[in-house]
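thread: overnight batch results

M.L. [08:02]
morning all. the overnight job finished for the chain we discussed friday. pasting input first so we're all looking at the same thing
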Amino acid sequence: MRKNESQLRTWLADTCPFPVTPENLLVAASNMVSIQLELGIAATERTMLVAMHDEVRTACRELAASRAWVKMAKVVQAKTDEAMAAEAVRLARKDRAVHPTGGVLLVADSLEHAARLMDLCGSQVQTGGFDSLEAVDAGEFAVVVVTKQVDRGYNSAVRLGVLLTGAYPGNSAARHQIRGRIRRIGQVRRSVEFVTVVMESSILQLLHERHSAVDSMNISLEQLGQSFSADVLARLNN
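M.L. [08:03]
and the structure it wrote out:
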């Protein structure tokens, strides 16, 4: 690595809200540029907790015994999807009451997950996938569902006022970058909202909490289970 690039990485590491690596250097630099521009767009953060029912608690305890952390997360997420979709629909209607072409950018974990969320939301409001952002009738879609991998390269989401997501394992820079899809130049709202929907007392709530900690922003489910298994089990027994 060249000396100047090394110095830039060191400086960005002290100022960016995520770990800086050679792979996300441009993301980190663009983050600093956006800060310098002072967009004047406020952002509010909110976590919505979904109650854990006995059925889920029992399934998670069984999976914890075999340290099947990924399977546990899938069980938890599947039982969170209905609440997640309902909140997306509620917030989309609220936003469109003020901004008729507005709505919610709903972030899914995978293509399969995106299809499920689209089905859940589509029965209540007009819902589209990534392609709907550039559609001629884009303003008709109250909820737009994208996967967490689609974190850059488009500006058309600025018509939306809320980004709603679950707690998913992945790169912290990507999580930061996707937020910039609605909080950027072209946004007409003075404030946008970022909402994370997780099941309480679950491994995904713990993942969300660790994502908010500087030391664990890129932690995987396996690493989370290995490092914080006692915390996971304690929450299941509460």
